[in-house]
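so im writing up the methods section and need the Phosphate transport system permease protein PstA record in one place, dumping it here so i stop losing it
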Amino acid sequence: MRYIKGEAFKYLCMAATVIALMLLALLMWDAWDKGAGWLSLKFLNSFPSRFPEQAGIKSALWGSIWLMILTAIISIPLGVGAAIYLEEYARRTWLTRIIEINISNLAGVPSIVYGILGLALFVRGLMLGRSLLAGALTMALLILPIIIISSQEAIRAVPKSIREASYALGSTKWQTVRHHVLPAALPGILTGNILSLSRAMGEAAPLIMIGALTFIAFTPAGPFDPFTALPIQIFNWASRPKAEFQFLAAAGILVLLALLLAMNAAAIIIRNKYQRYIKW
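--- predicted struct ---
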């Protein structure tokens, strides 16, 4: 009886997966059908406009690139450093367990909550305004728990025999972590970081909360400049009643999907490349 229930659950999961893939394929086909005809170099190199035939995503595209670069600079060192400390240096006490439980809970908090926190802390508290830096700090808070958890799992997967062999040869704790543990965990750490940045690139709710602009006719020149991003621009076009703007939104979705797929492909390539040289 238990075997039958297990088989039924397996087939139910398979059916749910097939249905989800079919729905995703339909949505992607709808976006391609509506937006493929609007994709061009002019579309990528033009600023938003009230005239659909002249509108483009240049400011949103560059804003997203700026945002991801700043978010990576802020979140990756903090996340990986916290993971190293929790896995290699922190003692297994009740306080450490509470911290890890809270980090896991923060990974499941809705993104809109981080937008409210960013609005109160960075936009108003630190007086950063509607700047790229405020958006990057908010996005860093959003993905920091995910980076910490994925980095911890990668470090935890490194066999203890590597650490013990390093200690047996007289290496210090930091030398062991730097020269043996981190290189072995690097594929998992990089994969988790890139996938976290991919999630941040597709988020619109936190950026709307902190007041990211929807119409900008210039590209940001520094971290304190106003900005927009691809999800914001897509949301702006999709909310307009004119049919041509719906097609522009579909074209923007295709560009965003292309960037996300490129980042995910980079994560797979990096993981496979480094795993070739790691033999446990």
